[in-house]
Amino acid sequence: MIQLLNHKDPHTARCIVNVQRPAYEKEAEIIQFQGIPQLNETAFDVMDSRDTFIGWFEGEELAGIASFIHTAEKLTICRLAVHPVHFRKGIAM
C-alpha cells in the first residue's frame, strides 16, 4: 500500500534512510559510481528535505520510497528506491 510519509518525523526519516541507503548501494555497485548523494544522507538530511515523500509498505515494513517536488509547472521525481530485500516485486514500476 502507498502512503504519504511524514519525513519530518525522526523515526520515519530513519526508515527512509534504511530503505534508500541499501538500494543506492546496490545501484552504485551496478553502475560503478559511489557519488550518489543519497548514499551519504542521514535522517537529519531527509528531515530537512523540501521533497514530498511517499512509501510502499509490505505489511508494517517500509519497502520502497519515492520523493518528488511539485510546482504549478511540473512534477520532479527526486528519488525512487526499493530495499533490495523487496526487489522484483513490482514496487518501483
From TrEMBL:
<dbReference type="GO" id="GO:0016747">
    <property type="term" value="F:acyltransferase activity, transferring groups other than amino-acyl groups"/>
</dbReference>
<protein>
    <submittedName>
        <fullName>GNAT family N-acetyltransferase</fullName>
    </submittedName>
</protein>
<dbReference type="Pfam" id="PF00583">
    <property type="entry name" value="Acetyltransf_1"/>
</dbReference>
<feature type="domain" description="N-acetyltransferase">
    <location>
        <begin position="44"/>
        <end position="92"/>
    </location>
</feature>
<dbReference type="InterPro" id="IPR016181">
    <property type="entry name" value="Acyl_CoA_acyltransferase"/>
</dbReference>
<dbReference type="InterPro" id="IPR000182">
    <property type="entry name" value="GNAT_dom"/>
</dbReference>
